[in-house]
Amino acid sequence: MGVLSTVDRVTQEDIREFMGREALALDERRFRDWLSFLSDDITYDVPLRVVREGLAEWELSPDGRIFQDNRQTLEVRVRRLETDFAWAEQPPSRTRHYVTNILIDKGEKPDEYEVSSYCLIYRSRGDSPDPNLVSAFRKDLVRRTADGYELARRWAAIDQAVINAHNLSIFI
After folding, report:
1. Which residues pair with 121 in a beta bridge?
2. Which pTM value belongs to this model?
3. Which of 44, 80, 85, 103 has the most other CB atoms within 10 Å of its CB?
4. Per-residue pLDDT tens for 81-115?
């Protein structure tokens, strides 16, 4: 039998609700609202997956990143999506974030929680009959504040080494 979470059920449900609402903001392209889910000191890190032989020490590049953002760069990305110059998102992507297998544990500091989850993103664009699927394992740090919860870290490892999309301009 696995280790059970030491986080009380009410907190677990609150964090699951928070995660669901965060995904909904992304799927409804309410990117300004999505930014309100993020802490001022957010780190948003998506390492590059590489294909290596046999018993290689790592599958995720220690240095290469698909995304490596902080609050400022995420705000720049959102501002760009609000202009006519976000060519990679013309027409805009339609996404569905399916967040499952959410496990919540206490973090190192009081009122911080380590949240692991699986995320499957269905993405379609324009009138293309071929959607993209992006599967990822996420490790988030969720912090409780006086105003509710906020996302302080998102680390996501995309399962595919080769992504079946012309671009990856969506948020994981």
Report:
1. 97, 134
2. 0.88
3. 44
4. 887 766 666 677 889 999 999 999 999 999 999 99
